[in-house]
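Model: You mentioned two targets. I'll fold them one after the other.
Researcher: Yes, keep them separate.
Model: Target one:
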Amino acid sequence: MKALVFAVSLIPLAGTSVASVTEYEEIIYYHNDALGSPVVATDANGDVLWREEYSPYGSRLLLESQESDC
């Protein structure tokens, strides 16, 4: 069996061989911006799993939900 990773355009990004199939399969959709940087991941129901923002020069910006309670 072969597992494929797809971008929003449905072009395979990577392929790896799978030794066994598990009972539980989770599908995660990665949504990229115009430059190809991943900005949102959603599950099969459309629920947001995580969200990312970048500065104009590509540095990751820390979102309020990612800050620690120090």
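Model: Target two:
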Amino acid sequence: MLEVNEEVLVVKQKFQRLLYFAKNLGFETILDVAPNVFEQFNISYNDLGFFYKLMQMAST
């Protein structure tokens, strides 16, 4: 579950590493996002580009 307990940048970097590691092991990742995370990351339910970019960055 994606939640924010630290600075937003730290959380983002942590999840990028986790997603990269999981992908290299052949796992498919599905995020369960707590509603307050949208506020903390300053993103909208209507624009999920943040999560797309997170997954793309984890793939490189």
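Researcher: Noted. Anything on target two?
Model: Residues 8-24 form the longest helix (17 residues).
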